Amino acid sequence: MSGSKKVAKDTYLFREGDAPDAMYILKSGELVVTKTKGNSEVTLADLTPGAMVGEMALFDMKPRSANVKARKESEVIVLPYDSLQKQLADLPVWVKAIMKTMNENMRDANKKIKMLETSNPDEDRYPPHVVNKLLSIINLVGFRYGTKEGDTVSVPPNRLRNYTIQVFQEATNKMQSMQNALKEMDYFEIQDLGEGKQKLVNKQPELLFEFVDWYNDWLFKQEKDRSPALTAEEVKVMDGVLKFAAQATPDAKGMTKLNVTEMQNESMRVLGFLLKPEDVNSLIEKKFIAEKMMDGGATFVSINTKEVETPVKFWKLIWDFKRYLR
User: Do β-strands 293-295 and 298-303 pair in parallel, antiparallel, or remain unpaired?
Assistant: First the structure.
């Protein structure tokens, strides 16, 4: 029977996979359509009064393809399918055929859009400026509206969402992907409080502030003035060299001298991978490591750890984003 229904804040009107029984018109409040992704949800659409939801299953009765929940206390008009089916029966056959075809075309279009979104793995959905923007939103909201808890900062989820959409006009699914990536990298914590509520904690706020400033500066310099970029493999090698350098004492100029043969011999034990002498050649060309030198029949390289630690750390972060953002 038709009627109205109250939906409390942060509760679901229906969930993905539920059997359909009615369509709804939002009378008051605000609903959000989400798609489950792992342990989190990606926002697909925001619904305001007058919007209709749940209508696609009227013809094929397929399970719900997404979640719908209330962002704030809402009221919907319930239109049960059985009542609607009786009214549809009185329509001319050609009208019903058109409506059914439109519904099927909509489902097909949704499938094709999803395929197109995932069919080009070479397309960079998260270019540098988007990475910086998303991190800046997290930094800004945490700094302005969050609560500092020791070295960490809580980030209000609703405020983060509002700034993402309304102020910076960025997609909420991209912000969700950034949060998930930061969680994978152990820079972010996402606590499920139940009933659709979350607590977001930025575990490395100072590092992310510093990274945004550094990356923005690097991106907007003229190419001739930039420090060289590092490949993912070069980051791995530099990480290894820095681990060996940490075990040695620098000279008065801050240079740490390392025996490349000894590094190779000890690399499997210390690093877990083989670090060959030739692996440092490209890093010497890019001036992250000083030229090789002979001393007593052995080959050495020198490195100023203070000068290279920051760019190596941030290039590692850049490649981690490429790995985890999806």
Answer: antiparallel
73 neighbors 9 (Cβ within 8 angstroms): yes
Q: Is 305 exposed, middle or buried (0-12, 13-18, 19+ CB in 10 A)?
A: middle
User: How confident is the model over 105-114, as pLDDT tens digits?
Assistant: 555 555 554 5
> Which structure tokens are listed for 314?
């941030």
Rounded to whole angstroms, what are the CA distances from 277 to 135, 187, 213, 236, 280? 37, 33, 34, 14, 6
Terminal CA-to-CA distance of the chain, rounded, Å? 43
Tally Cβ neighbours within 10 Å of residue 196: 18
Rounded mean pLDDT, 132-136: 95
Q: What angle do CA 67, 32, 136 make, to 5 degrees?
A: 115
CA distance linking residue 249 with residue 290, whole number of Å: 16
d(CA 263, CA 246): 13
pLDDT-based confidence at 45, cuts 50/70/90? confident
DSSP percent split of the chain into helix, strand, coil, nearest 5: 45, 25, 30
Beta strands in 150-279 (DSSP E): 152-155, 188-194, 197-202, 256-259
How do beta strands 12-14 and 67-80 pair? antiparallel
Q: What is the CA radius of gyration of the chain?
A: 27
- Per the CB < 8 A criterion, the answer to whether 203 and 197 are in contact is no
CA distance 303 to 287: 9
Would the pLDDT of 86 be above 80?
Answer: no
- Of 316, 119, 324, 145, the residue nearest 233 (C-alpha): 316
- Rounded to two decimals, the pTM is 0.63
What's the Cα-to-Cα distance from 119 to each of 41, 108, 114, 116, 123, rounded to whole Å? 22, 16, 9, 5, 9
Angle separating helix axes 305-324 and 205-220, nearest 10 degrees: 90
